[in-house]
Amino acid sequence: MPYTKRRRLVRTAVAIALGATTLAACGSESGDGDTESGPASLTYWTWTPGMDKVVDLWNKGPGKKDRITVTVKKQASGDTLVTKILTAHKAGKAPDLVQAEYQALPTLVSNDALADISENVGGVERKFADGVWQQTTLGTDAVYAVPQDIGPMMFYYREDLFKEYGLTVPTTWDEFAETARKLKKAAPGKDLTTFSANDSGLFAGLAQQAGAKWWTTSGDQWKVSINDAASQKVAKFWGGLVKEGAIDNQPMYTPAWNKALNTGKQIAWVSAVWAPGTLTTAAPDTKGKWAMAPLPQWSASDNSTGSWGGSSTAVTTDSEHRAAAAKFAAWLNTDSEALNALAKESGIYPAATNAQTSGAFLKPPAYFANQADFYTKAADIAETTAPSAWGPNVNVAYTTFKDAFGAAAKSKSDFGAALDEMQADTVADMKKQGFEVAE
């Protein structure tokens, strides 16, 4: 959608949702006086551990040369931070820079809290996969953030147990289902994996891989398609496996789930590139017994993956030094020294493609020491990240997912009905906030 139309949409939404009588400057406007000729002191809100050490590199190096100083203010993550940013912005006191999850960007943009920094980060997009960069543009010519870390989805499996039960690593979802059934027949007490309703990002990433576009825009209206054909396909697939008992229906991240992974009761996990860290804690006794492969595809000719997690660095419309802030955001997420420090101090998987097979990623994670090409394979998978389509009330959709899919998984009932409930609740909330929603 043309940026001018998006801005009209955004202005209408902000005026109604916040009751604003006046609006801050549009993100496409400059608002950055003499930044390049004078010093600038910037504040950065972030939850990433060790970020202060990474920022020190800037303050002692490029930042010192450019007379741009950045101060880190540690924050909570998720919806808590989004609410704090919006509250500060309403008072005209948001920080210069904020860390924002990709799914939070439309909410912040629709409230006019993020600046368009496209004029300040020209050429940076070449450092990122197309599907990753798209998440910071929202499908427009504007740029609302610079990607920081990503969570391309992958398939993890117990290599030793796959061999023991004569299982082949599935390359399609049909093969995945057959693998689950074959294991259940050979070892009734074991499950290939579980469908978990306590992390909405997993299902969102699977729907993304299938081609879902949950939020799109047409003219001045939003279109919500959470129960589109692609998402229904994913829901029917997983719901069917749960109903027939081919996989487990218990939530992740519980003591029972940890035990199932650690004892080999569950022998695979659909997850993302950050899984080694989770497995290290959840299944310490199985270190070196797992392997990683690309996510199964809906068709043998497909080659795409979904994204589960990830965040970006954005500049707010309240910043008086937008060009300086954008310069720092670009450095933080593309400079080799900065990216190596982020990997070492913060444990992130970088969005920048040049960093995914260098520095800290030359060797596999310790938990996967048996798979020397772990990060080489991960980088190839990351390049296939499918485009996403987030909207201004992801939190509402995610909350309904946990409730509706949680109930459906527990009772082994219709996942399609749960998806319809997500759709209805999301649309109702958007209309309540004053967004124009196409029927």
Overview of this structure, please?
- This protein is α+β, with helices and mostly antiparallel strands.
- It has two domains: 40-143 and 311-350, Periplasmic binding protein-like II (D-Maltodextrin-Binding Protein, domain 2); 153-307 and 387-433, D-Maltodextrin-Binding Protein, domain 2.
- The protein is built from 17 helices and nine strands.
- Strands 1, 2, 3, 4, 7, 8 and 9 form a seven-stranded mixed beta sheet that branches.
- A hairpin with a 2-residue loop joins strand 5 (215-218) and strand 6.
- Residues 1-24 form the signal peptide.
- It holds the Pfam family SBP_bac_1.
- It comes from Streptomyces qaidamensis.
Properties at a glance:
2 domains; 17 helices; alpha+beta; D-Maltodextrin-Binding Protein, domain 2; 439 residues; disordered N terminus
List the helices and strands and how they pair.
Elements: H1 3-18, E1 40-46, H2 51-60, H3 62-66, E2 68-74, H4 78-90, E3 97-101, H5 105-110, H6 130-137, E4 146-158, H7 159-164, H8 173-186, H9 200-209, E5 215-218, E6 221-224, H10 229-244, H11 255-263, E7 268-272, H12 275-282, E8 290-294, E9 307-315, H13 322-334, H14 336-346, H15 374-382, H16 394-411, H17 415-433
Parallel strand pairs: 1-2, 1-3
Antiparallel strand pairs: 3-9, 4-7, 4-8, 4-9, 5-6
Helix pairs in contact: 2-14, 9-10, 16-17
Keywords: Cell membrane, Lipoprotein, Membrane, Palmitate, Signal
Protein name: Sugar ABC transporter substrate-binding protein
Signal peptide: 1-24
